Amino acid sequence: MPVKDGNSLYAGLTDILGQEFVSKEPEELYIYSRDSSANPPRPVDYVVMPSSVEEVQAIVKLASSKGIPLIPMGAALNLEGLTLPLKGGIVVDMRRMDKIIEVSEMDRYALVEAGVSQGKLISYLEEKYPMLQHSVPDAPPSATVAGSCLICGYGHLSTNYGTHAEMVNGLEVVLPTGEILRTGSAMLSTSLWFGRGSLPDLTGLFLGWLGTTGIVTKLSIRLYPRPPIRDMVIYMMQDSSIVPDVVYRITHTEVAEDVSIVGQERPEWMKGYQIIAAYVSAHTEKELDLKKSYLKRISKEEFKSKVSFMEEAPGELKEQFMELPFFATKVADWKKGGGFEYVGAIMPIDTLPEAWEKGIDIAHRFDMLYSYAIRVVEGGHHVLFTYSYPFNRADEVSMHNALSALKETQKLSLALGAIPWKPEVDGQKEIIKKMDKGTFKLMQRIRKLLDPGGIMNPGNWEVD
Amino acid sequence: MALDDFKDVIHRCFRCGYCKFTSNYTDFNCPPYNKFRLETFSPGGRMWLIRAMMLKDIEPSQHLADILYSCTMCANCVEECRFKFHDDIVDIIMEGKASLVESGMVPPTARDFFKNIYLSGNPWKEPQQKRGDWARHYGIPVYKPGDEYLYYVGCIGSYDQRVQKMAGAFGQLLLRAGLSFGILGEDEYCDGNEVLMMGEQGLFEYLAQKNIELFKERRVNKIVTLSPHAYNVMRNKYPRLGGDFEVVHYTELLKELISSGRLKVPGGRKIKVTYHDPCFLGRWNSIYDEPREVLESVDGVELVEMRRNRENAFCCGGGGGNFYTDIIGGGESSPSRIRVREAADTGADIIAVACPTCMTMIEDGLKGEDLDEKIMCNDISEIVLDAITSAEEG
Amino acid sequence: MASGEDHVYEALRTIVGDPFVSRDREELYMYSRDPGASIPRSADWVVLPSTTDEVQKIVILARDMKVPVVPISGGLTLSGLAVPVKGGIVMDMRRMDRIIEVNERSRYVVVESGVSQGKLLSFLKENYPMLRHSMPDAPPSASVVGNTLIYGSGHLSKHGAHSEMINGLEVVLGDGEVLRLGSCALSPYWFGRGPLPDLVSLFVNWFGTTGIVTRLSLKLYPSHPLRDMLIFLVQDPKTIPQAVSMITSTDMMEDVLIVASRPPKAPSVISLLTVYLTAETHEELDFKKELFVDMFKDFGQEGSRMVFTPKEMLPQKLIHGFMEEPQYAAATADFKKGGGFEYVGVVLPLSKVPVAWKMGEEIARKHGFDPLYTVRNVGLGHGVVFAFAYPFNRADEESLQRSRDALADTNDMALELGGTPWKSELEGQAKIMARMDPVVLSVMDGIKRVMDPGGIMNPGNWKHG
Lengths: 464, 394, 465
Ligand SMILES: Cc1cc2nc3c(=O)[nH]c(=O)nc-3n(C[C@H](O)[C@H](O)[C@H](O)COP(=O)(O)OP(=O)(O)OC[C@H]3O[C@@H](n4cnc5c(N)ncnc54)[C@H](O)[C@@H]3O)c2cc1C
Ligand SMILES: Cc1cc2nc3c(=O)[nH]c(=O)nc-3n(C[C@H](O)[C@H](O)[C@H](O)COP(=O)(O)OP(=O)(O)OC[C@H]3O[C@@H](n4cnc5c(N)ncnc54)[C@H](O)[C@@H]3O)c2cc1C
Ligand code: SF4
Ligand code: SF4
Prior knowledge:
The complex is a heterotrimer. Chain A is 33% helix and 22% strand. By secondary structure, chain A is α+β, with helices and mostly antiparallel strands. Chain A folds into 4 domains: 6-93, Uridine Diphospho-n-acetylenolpyruvylglucosamine Reductase, domain 2 (2-Layer Sandwich); 100-225, 2-Layer Sandwich (Uridine Diphospho-n-acetylenolpyruvylglucosamine Reductase, domain 3); 229-321, ACT domain (Alpha-Beta Plaits), CATH 3.30.70; 331-423, FAD-linked oxidases, C-terminal domain (Vanillyl-alcohol Oxidase, Chain A, domain 3, 3-Layer(aba) Sandwich), CATH 3.40.462.10. In chain A, the strands form 4 sheets. An 8-stranded antiparallel sheet of chain A has the order 15-12-14-13-17-18-16-19, with helices on both faces. Chain A has a 5-stranded antiparallel sheet with strand order 5-6-10-8-9. In chain A, strands 1-2-4-3 form a 4-stranded mixed sheet. In chain A, α10 packs antiparallel against α11. The two termini of chain A are 16 Å apart. The mean pLDDT of chain A is 93. Chain B folds into 3 domains: 3-106, no CATH class; 121-256, Rossmann fold, CATH 3.40.50.1860; 266-392, Rossmann fold. Chain B contains 18 helices and 8 strands. In chain B, the strands form 2 sheets. Chain B has a 4-stranded parallel sheet with strand order 2-1-3-4. In chain B, α17 links the parallel β7 and β8. Chain B is globular, with a radius of gyration of 20 Å. Chain C is an alpha+beta fold. In chain C, 30% of the residues lie in helices and 23% in strands. Chain C has 12 helices and 19 strands. In chain C, α1 packs antiparallel against α3 (52-65) and α10 (397-416) runs parallel beside α11. The mean pLDDT of chain C is 92. Classes of the chains: A alpha+beta, B alpha/beta, C alpha+beta. Residues 30-32, 43, 46, 71-77, 90 of chain B line the site of one iron/sulfur cluster.
């Protein structure tokens, strides 16, 4: 949709940001209309990079007065085209707002601007607060902390402490009206961001909404203790149906920091196996040994020959598994093609075996190898099951196959009672179709309330 | 090489952005990205745009030229990209620029750069016959067949007043070590590294051939270069054009002269020094230790590291011709100013450099930051020479 | 009004059947007050639905008749939150007390809103000995839903406040619409909130003003056969943040609770920090005990130590009380032999505990009380719920008033410190809202309008201006 009144809008934007951080050049429009996924490009009219809340406010007010869509963007690494405009408009790249404003060591939180990358927070904490850590997703370190929280992402501490949305203490948001809203404890005291507190919860209005309710400018997230020792053990089995039991037992011990399950067809030795990696962290060797002995006992006492247990993972494998963030991005080059898509589906662990077996069918049907990474969330309350489909960006057929497999997997997930995570626009429609009608109506009413002009990332969470 | 040779590689860039960072993610380490922040100015952005240009989804334009020419060829992306094709990234960017050259769409300053070098052998249209003038003051001889080393100085060392001192310092050290060596003086010509990095392949070949012929004619075997840029191109690119010489960088040679005892370095005054790795020495050619060893061999020098060092060093912003084209521009977030602030954070008295380009950029940065009273920029030879002469003066 | 009342009454009878509606004085008396110190406020009808369908019908009736509806599930907030502000129908949820489903492997339970803490506790013990829920120290008659919706905290609050343990809801909005929020909105499973646009939060701490929760899925956690505790005498409350931070940095404890009180006949206030431990084996339990005992061996200096106090040295009755699940905190109510106590709970960052402690002491003394505190860690040192309690004698108006005054001062102090007062009564809510930005208030108003267009849901709460 061509944006009307282009010149005065451009002039307005440059008034706010200066020439340097507004673009309508073909080069920027090209890049920002594409992400790393297999989604076809969707046109962008302007790209802006604000550096302060005031600038964001001014942009929002301008866009709102002209009825131009705004698409907030972190690093655009969601792999679902969620930052590609569905109705044209202005992409708001938040990454100039990248200050780590405060870390409270005692109260274990970090207050950061929306553009702060995972990498920046990792290195900052490592250097300044070695006793603390945040939950790091397996995404590239250039992904933003905000992006992951706002899409209910998952990281290496999610096995114990839940999704990244649940780790949000509070937000500062520029509403579609241009007003600033602070949520959580900051509703009462703008200098304290320690939690959501016992106040009417407004934080949820921005979690999982995919940028359709406002632009988040700051967020406070929980930090967690970082024990000095970290290690892992591995369970291997060749029967997906026992995975739920094994995971249940592992999580029952409450000694694992992180539990992931992987399965892939390459390298050859991995084919047909379910590999469960249980990470353990500890303050002392003695603690580590005790914890590992618990994990060992499970396989010995309860599953005997069905599960093989490795107290020490083979060197190279271990090195890969221990990296933070885990280099999941490597899948992108499997087809030597610079891309991969994945479906993340949130499901109860009981559905894992079926999800596993049927996923293999889908991969094979579309001429691909199956590749799974599954993370157990919050002590086993659910799992995030990701199916990856690498493709070759230069090969139409391969891109098409990846997208088709993706859609099939999404359908499968919904049929299994799972919920597709950060779904692309078609997936959103599938979800809405299955969703309680009243719930969807309420979503629409909330949106209407917060964004009467319908300028925030329109087209998302909508029906045709 | 041509862009087409990379057609099976270029789309493999996932735009994941590892390449923007240092290895431990402390900072953005791609200088133009750090400055401009638009995704287009990131290494992945360049990869995607070059591919778009190949596919004709994007036309060559001045803006595209700015995006590609703001790349300083610092190779941080090569270092940090996690994929197998990482070695190709700078080559692809180089080829991208070559395409722009072909379509006549290069930034005006780059055009001047090429033209001046073509016409005058240096970027500033300085007269060729004055190229060796600086050396007279130091009594540095002209190379004659049979000398052990050709001392290749390069354009900046020959014409920039500040860098001439650097060139002189190294020359004096060679004299003191009793080495037989000489410069080409008014016969020296641009080495072509920047020209190549900026995609003017025709001009590069012309320069390289010219140099190779001259070196051969003078029966040169060993070359010591002042500039890591010249070092890079002579060592890595000349052989393919028939120019097989033994090339060393001056820090390597100093290291050898000192450890073999040919050059005696008595203790100097106590100074705190931080060393700025030049991209074409460090990331391009993996030389990290020799310069540091030379500095550490000077009694009284306390070597302190900047936050970003070695593989993670932040480029001064001068490479890829940017010391001349100035596409990244000045201001607080210009690479050189960021770098000198980082140096200042170490509490060092001196920023040691080992590259003429770095020296000019860092000097500018110091002035820009008003730090030129507080911290000095010296090259490694100057520091060594100063230690020797001040000891002599007692 | 009279004819309207009759109509409401008749309609309610048709919906739930005769015995479950009342407008008799006895019921109205009961439902007009709670065990706290607030002044009674009248109710007009009391109704006890048994299904979501009935709840929906009642809400539609109330919507059409424009009468308020106040849900009550346990009525134990002590701050009058389920006592009508503007009259109307009190909807007692306690007939809806089915435990609908336990998903053992995904560790959740779906309960109806009238299920009591006690019922869930015993149900799990009997049927799912490997699972437990986070039990508050409230009387077992408190409801799971009521407690969860108001940021309750309990024995497993290292996993967060109870509101964070909600996996999904079934709700009836103010306009009578029934809907499901969380994974259950599109899945037969109630395993989590996300990754959908979050709507569950619109019922967290809203005190029934956004709708009525009829079902709730609550996260459950592993239960271990062994449970024990370590008690430390706190010499200097200033060291509490440090101590809690150290304890929680291990994630090896079940719960951390600090209690300060002056036991009958004791010369002064005694502060005890208790670390609860659970374990699968004795080896594990011993390991944990040793870990925490060692942790505090060299802690602080004389006057600021955490003195490990073996259980054997303390009165067995006290120990027994501490180990009970739920703890018999209600004992406080009889401190004054007067059957009442009221407290202000405040959610505070850990770092503010010492200053709150000190200021609480001043307030207590000013109003003639000894400090009586319970401080519970929430998350891994991510915050605390700090309860300042003031027992009173219900038969003595002066003692009631002193309690109320102390509460008011405590609220002010809490707000001054940047804390968020927990389950605030009307006055507290007013103070909170006075500190809120107009944008926050207008969004809150807007949300209420969306969820409850007729303004019938527990009106008077979270109302400003
Ligand atoms: C290889 C790979 C592995 C991955 N592994 C994981 C993983 O383990 N765990 C995980 O959680 N994720 C993972 N991801 C997904 C990716 O990391 C997340 O999508 C990413 O963290 C989101 O951050 P972003 O900065 O890229 O957000 P974007 O993609 O830019 O944005 C995501 C959504 O949030 C909205 N948004 C962004 N910023 C704002 C704002 N300031 N205000 C309002 N709305 C905003 C956008 O409009 C969009 O809808 C992986 C991705 C890749 C490529
Ligand atoms: C001695 C004592 C000790 C205590 N210790 C603790 C403790 O350790 N931890 C703790 O967390 N709490 C504690 N409490 C507080 C008490 O547990 C809470 O007040 C109680 O958990 C709230 O539950 P309830 O069933 O009483 O809720 P109610 O009083 O019934 O309701 C609370 C609020 O929620 C609303 N509401 C109720 N049901 C619904 C519904 N179905 N849908 C929508 N809104 C609804 C009501 O209108 C009201 O506003 C203690 C209380 C006492 C008396
Ligand atoms: S160059 Fe490498 S690291 Fe950079 S975006 Fe492309 S694939 Fe990622
Ligand atoms: S070579 Fe340096 S400046 Fe060029 S893209 Fe790579 S990191 Fe950026």
